[in-house]
Design goal:
Layout (H helix, E strand, L loop, with lengths): L12 E12 L2 E13 L4 E5 L6 H9 L6 E10 L2 E2 L5 H4 L7 E4 L3 H4 L6 H13 L3 H14 L16 H12 L6 E5 L7 H18 L2 E6 L11 E6 L2 E7 H6 L4 H8 L48 E4 L2 E4 L11 E2 L3
Parallel strand pairs: 3-8, 3-9, 6-7, 7-8
Antiparallel strand pairs: 1-2, 1-4, 4-5, 9-10, 10-12, 11-12, 11-13
C-alpha cells in the first residue's frame, strides 16, 4: 500500500478510537473502547494486562481476525496513512501476511501436525506472493536459517521439534511475505524461561535487522523490559497508561500499573517478595460504572464511582486516572 501523500513522519499504524463489541445471547457487550495509539516502523509496543483486559481483542481487530461473534463498533485503523477495512474479512485478505502478520501462541496447536514445517512456511509465499513451489520452498529454507533453525529441519513435522523450535517456525511463517508489522500473541506462552528469553531476543534482533514494527501481547510486564520501546497497560477494555518502558518501570502513574510492577519479583532492587492485586477484573457482563478498576484500587475516590477517567497526556506518556487532572500544569487533555 503506497500513499503518495504520506511523509516520513506518517506512522506505520494509526489506531483511532477503536471499539469492539461481543455478541452474547443476543446482547451486545463492549469489549474495548476508545483505543487510540500510533506505531512507527522499527518500534515495538507491548499490550499488557490481565486476562480479559482487551489486549488480544485489540490486536486481532487490527489484523481483521476477530471471532465471528465480535464486531467493530467504532473507530478506524490506518496503515501508512490509508484506512484499512478491518470490518470486512474479504477486503482484509490482501493485507494479511503482506502488511500485517501474526505469531500465534501455542505453536503445537497453530501448526498443521501432518504437514512438514517447510511446506507450511512456503504456503503464504505461494498464495500471497504468487511464488512457484520451488521458489517458495527456497524462501522457507532461508527463513528457517534466519530464525536460527538449520534448513534441513524444514523436512520435520511439528511434533519432531522442540517447543522453542516450533515457536521459531511460527516466527518464520509470520515473516514469509515481508510484512512491516508483526503481532506477537503471547509468543512465549508455555516456554521455559531460558527458551522464552531466546525467543524475545530473536524478536528484538529481527525487528532491528528488518525494521519491523512489533505489537507484543502479554500479561507479564517482565517480558517486555528488554524487548519493547513502549508499554500500553490495558484494563477492562481501555488503555489506562501508555509510555516508554523505562518511564513506566521507574515511575508508574496509574495505580494498576504500579500494582502490576509490584507483582514482579525484582532481586536487583531487593524486592523478592511479590504483592498480589486483590480481587478480580470485571467481566464483559459486569462492567462497573465509572472507573472499572475502582473496586481494587487503594486510591479510589468518590468520583471514580461515577465518571470514567479521561486519557490525558503527561510528560512521560498518557494516563487515565482521576488522580491526574487535565487542569494540572503537567497534563494536557487528550481527546481519545
Amino acid at each position: 500500500m503506497n500513499n503518495p501523500s504520506s511523509s516520513p513522519t506518517t506512522p506505520l499504524l494509526a489506531v483511532d478510537r477503536l471499539a469492539v463489541d461481543y455478541g452474547l445471547k443476543g446482547v451486545s457487550l463492549p469489549a474495548i473502547r476508545d483505543v487510540t495509539f500510533e506505531l512507527h516502523s522499527g518500534k515495538a509496543v507491548a499490550l499488557v494486562g490481565e486476562s480479559g483486559s482487551g489486549k488480544t481483542t485489540t490486536a486481532m481487530a487490527i489484523a481483521g481476525l476477530l471471532s465471528p461473534n465480535a464486531a467493530i463498533s467504532g473507530g478506524e485503523v490506518r496503515y501508512r496513512g490509508n484506512r484499512i477495512p478491518i470490518d470486512d474479512d474479504a477486503a482484509m485478505r490482501p493485507h494479511r501476511w503482506r502488511d500485517t502478520s501474526v505469531i500465534f501462541q501455542g505453536a503445537m496447536n497453530a501448526l498443521n501436525p501432518v504437514q512438514r514445517v517447510s511446506n507450511q512456511i512456503a504456503e503464504p509465499c505461494i498464495l500471497k506472493l504468487g511464488m512457484s513451489r520451488k521458489a517458495a520452498t527456497e524462501r522457507a529454507m532461508e527463513l528457517l536459517e534466519l530464525v536460527g533453525i538449520s534448513a534441513e529441519r524444514g523436512a520435520a513435522y511439528p511434533h519432531e521439534l522442540s517447543g522453542g523450535m516450533r515457536q521459531r517456525v511460527m516466527i518464520a511463517m509470520a515473516l514469509a511475505c515481508n510484512p512491516s508489522l508483526v503481532i506477537g500473541d503471547e509468543p512465549t506462552t508455555a516456554l521455559d524461561v531460558i527458551t522464552q528469553a531466546q525467543i524475545l531476543k530473536l524478536l528484538a534482533e529481527l525487528r532491528s535487522r528488518l525494521d519491523l514494527a512489533l505489537i507484543l501481547i502479554t500479561h507479564d510486564l517482565s517480558v517486555v523490559a528488554e524487548s519493547c520501546d513502549r508499554v500500553m497497560i490495558m484494563y477492562a477494555g481501555r488503555i489506562v497508561e501508555d509510555g516508554e518502558v523505562t518511564d513506566i518501570f521507574a515511575n508508574p502513574m496509574h495505580p494498576y500499573s504500579r500494582m502490576l510492577i509490584e507483582s514482579i519479583p525484582d532481586p536487583q532492587r531487593g524486592r523478592r517478595m511479590v504483592r498480589s492485586i486483590p480481587g478480580d477484573p470485571p467481566t464483559l457482563q459486569n462492567r462497573p460504572s465509572g472507573c472499572a478498576f475502582r473496586h481494587r484500587c487503594p486510591s479510589a475516590m468518590p468520583v471514580c464511582a461515577t465518571d470514567i477517567p479521561s486519557l490525558v497526556s503527561t510528560r512521560q506518556g498518557r494516563v487515565a486516572c482521576h488522580l491526574y487532572s487535565s487542569t494540572n500544569e503537567e497534563m494536557v487533555s487528550q481527546n481519545v
